[in-house]
Amino acid sequence: MDDATLPSPDPASSTNAILGHVPIEITVSVGFARPMVKDLMRLHRDAVLPLDRRIDDPVELYIGDRLIARGELQEMEGDQAGFLGVRLTELANLDEML
């Protein structure tokens, strides 16, 4: 069989096959606090640091400094009960980021 009869590999699918197994870290931002240093120095155990968001505001998901999605926090169920998860509500176009 000569090489001309073999299908040529699709570079996009080869890249996807390789990249599909690379782990990435996603950061979930729930809000920011901007206390004065003097207020920060007064914090103690069980103190509550207020954030700039409400409990029902969407959270933002980042890879590095790139916003990739927004979502809502939710408690996991089943084997992962007690852990937090994020239900995605908006997605960025990931193809444009690659």
From TrEMBL:
Membrane-protein topology: Peripheral membrane protein
Record keywords: Cell membrane, Cell projection, Chemotaxis, Cilium, Flagellar rotation, Flagellum, Membrane
Domain Flagellar motor switch protein FliN-like C-terminal: 19-91
Subcellular location: Cell membrane
Gene3D superfamilies attached to this UniProt entry: SpoA-like
Superkingdom: Bacteria
PANTHER family: FLAGELLAR MOTOR SWITCH PROTEIN FLIN, PTHR43484
Family: Belongs to the FliN/MopA/SpaO family.
This protein's name: Flagellar motor switch protein FliN
Taxonomic classification: Bacteria, Pseudomonadati, Pseudomonadota, Alphaproteobacteria, Rhodobacterales
